[in-house]
STAS domain-containing protein
Amino acid sequence: MKTQIHTQLSVPPHDGSYDNEALSCSIIDITAPNSGEPHGGLRGSNEFILSDSGKKVTGDDQTGQLNMWLQRKARSAFSEKMIKKRLPILRWLPQYNSTDAIGDLVAGITVGLTVIPQALAYAGIAGLPAAYGLYGSFLGCIVYIVFGSCKDVPMGPTAIASLLTFQTAGGNVGKAILLCFLSGVVELLMGLLGLGFLVDFVSGPVSSGFTSAVSLIIVTSQVKDVLGITAKGTTFIEIWRNIFNDIHNVQVWDTFLGLTCIAVLLIMRIIAGLKVGPADDELKSKNHRIINKLMWLIGTSRNAILVVVCGAIGYSFQSSAVAPFKLIGDIPPGLPSLKAPPFSLTANETMSGAEESFMEMVSSLGSGLIVVPLIALMENIAICKAFSNGKPVDATQELIAIGLANIANSFVQGFPGTGSLSRSAVNNASGVRTPLGNIYTMALVVLSLLFFTPYFSYIPKASLAAVIIAAVVFMVEVKVVKPMWRTKKSDLIPGLGTFIACLALPLEMGILFGVGLNVVFILYHAARPKISVERLTSPGGAEYLIITPDRCLIFPSVDYVRNLVTKQSIRQSLPVVIDCSHVYGADFTAATVIDSITQDFARRDQPLFFYNLKPSVCAIFEGLSPADFVVYYREEHLDDLLKQRAYKPKEVISA
């Protein structure tokens, strides 16, 4: 039985056939009787590939292979399955019925009552006039109806996207609109290239740390409006420093109104979750159900109710010379004009007073062009997973949907947006059936722009700040700390590191720091595989040492594995078997280390065998033609190998 493997490169025959090298690792002799050929004469051919048209495409015909690949891609791209996958509306619209229409109508109106006050408030977070929040809340909804794959996603401004817009565009309207367009283009390209997997590099702890830090920054950014003072800044520390510098200018009425609004919103939030009547829904009377529905509706519409009431209070002071509250100011009536986003800025549109070209604008946006799309995708995928009921989420399709939605919003002067988790929860609880619920949300936003913008100017800033604070304060993910501590304490390090970095640094640097820290942990675990060492006895009574790594052998871990194997083999002075059952991959560095290990064992005249090595990994190791490289696949063969080596136990070397 042949056990020692020596691989030699040979010139392929003229007929284009070749030996199946994956079989060269096996010690089992499968030579066919009287054939005299290795592997029983099993051979493959690389002479030609038969195309669908019946023509032969040889291995050297690169043009023919490229044409075949393009034909396959074209057929796949225009197949019925792919068209329905990229246009999800074609899947649900043919089955649309009256029940779906009623559910979408109720959900769409409910979400619309939520999005209008939120859009006005989120524009303030982005450092833009309030109207721009509404501009980014209607056209993208139509696009998502056609291309979106999740019924619960209401497209529009979000707290996180607004803060990222402010930190990237610095409150400049032209740059915010261009950021919306370019973010949409990046998202669309990522979708077309199938790069949705990039969001997988943001782990749960990093995502929790980022979201919690963003929540605190947003709350901090709204404290100034509650207190009625001026405090600019982009980071958590900078904003608080400016708040304390201007604390002596606190406005009593703004503070009173802001704190009162926060308390009212929190109380109304509690009311939305209250239930009257028996705990069992089947035992509740009709009156109980009506009362519960009204309490839920009042609690869910709390933002709209509060803004209307505060707007009425602000309107009542219109005859006064000076209003006791700071108001959001005039909002242009009507819909925004449909035009391309600005690709340059005039001197009057920049802070520096100098014109800016397109390249200068892009340069000033910096890393935000990558961070904003990735965070938007992360928010959207989180919503889809939360309401998918276990169904798979197509990240590629969501990238295409939010990319096209942002591109469309940029033509009506909107800033970057994505799916909102809070509005998605309202959408789901309202009984939405399909993405068509977005059309009713869009209708309410359009109506408010056409008829109610003159009254929006009387809304106090403190009330909008209260809406934001009462919403985002619950985004601080304190609840994940305890289960994370119980499961794996080391995961707290990247989570806490991301949280601190995002508070102290700009958000894009904070999230990059968190991802980098997480990658360091991954590389560390890859470099330190768990290795079990056991002293066993073969069926023939020979003692040997079996060493079992629990993962692939790649460059960060091979030196660690080599040192451990060498240390244990010298200490025990026994034949060594490396159990490769869990080694599913290897690289060139691992192959060089295996070559070195086999030479070390050969010099010590100490047997070394590899058990259950995968053929694909074996081919990598054989690429360097290591000496004394022995692989076996059955435990009973170990005694035969030891006999062939004429192994005699030596005296054990003490540690």
Remarks:
- The domain at 530-644 is CATH 3.30.750.24 (Transcription Regulator spoIIAA).
